[in-house]
Amino acid sequence: MKPKILVLDDNIALLGLFNEVFAEEGVEVLLETNGASALNRIRTERPKVAFVDINLGNESGLDVLREAKKIDSRLAVIMMTGGHSTQSAIEAMKYGAYDYITKPFDFVKLKDM
Fold first, then answer.
1. What per-residue string of b and e applies to 69-104 under the rule 16 or more CB within 10 Å gives b?
2. pLDDT digits over 26-35, tens only?
3. What would the pLDDT profile of 34-62 be if each residue is shown by its tens digit?
C-alpha cells in the first residue's frame, strides 16, 4: 500500500508540482483546492501527511488545520505560506501543525521532511 499525502492549495500549478515530485517517489498524492473537500479526504483516505496553504482565498488554512487535527490527531500537518507572518506561524503551531514552511521551497528538502 502506497503512503498517502494530501496537498491543499488554491494554486493549481503548485498542486501539479507536488503530484509530479511525490508520485515519482511512489507516494499517492491527494490534491484538493478547498477545505471541505480536503477534510473529507482526510476522513476517508487517512493520509499520513497534509500540506495546507494558510491563505486559501475565502478560507483559512488554520481553520482546516484545527478541523483536520480533530479528525486525526496523528496527522502531520505542514502549513505553507507565500508570506511569512510570525503570528500565523505561532497559531499554526498552537493548533498542532508539524511544521510551517514558506514558499517558494525546495522540493528535494521537502521530500526529506
1. beeeeebbbbbbbeeeeeebbebbeebebebbbeee
2. 999 999 999 9
3. 999 999 999 999 999 999 999 888 889 99
